């Protein structure tokens, strides 16, 4: 179970890092032209960049606290935050009729919920 939780956190970290880099460093106009990025045309540039920074922080927060043993409780807390972020993403894509992305965000949400449950529960870092 511990290995599955590390793999899940690692996969989410890669997703967060990828999304964070693109939202933080790629101009909003370019993101809006990419499939699945149309929502950025309706959002302010600052909001998109703020989401990108949050995703970059999530990428680190899912792995680093547990890996270095400093405040490892931040890993499952980050997973809970990722659940909330994916719920918002699902709502955004759902309103736009982008149901493929709703399903993809649901997969990420379920994976993050699994990591949060496992790290707060049976495979806690405190034990």
Automatic annotation (TrEMBL):
Family matches, as Pfam families: DoxX_2
Entry superkingdom: Bacteria
Membrane topology: Multi-pass membrane protein
Keywords carried by this UniProt record: Membrane, Transmembrane, Transmembrane helix
Subcellular location: Membrane
Keyword Membrane: yes
The keyword Methyltransferase belongs to this UniProt entry's keyword annotation: no
Transmembrane feature ranges: 62-87, 99-120
Primary localization: membrane
Protein name, as recorded: DoxX family protein
């Amino acid at each position: 179970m511990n290995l599955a939780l590390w793999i899940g956190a690692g996969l989410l970290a890669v997703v967060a890092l990828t999304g964070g880099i693109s939202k933080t460093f790629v101009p909003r106009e370019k993101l809006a032209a990419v499939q699945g990025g149309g929502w950025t045309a309706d959002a302010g540039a600052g909001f998109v960049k703020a989401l990108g920074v949050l995703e970059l922080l999530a990428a680190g927060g899912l792995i680093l606290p547990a890996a270095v043993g400093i405040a490892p409780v931040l890993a499952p807390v980050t997973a809970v935050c990722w659940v909330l972020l994916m719920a918002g993403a699902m709502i955004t894509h759902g309103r736009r009729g982008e149901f493929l992305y709703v399903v993809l965000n649901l997969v990420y949400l379920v994976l993050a919920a699994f990591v949060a449950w496992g790290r707060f529960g049976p495979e806690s870092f405190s034990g």
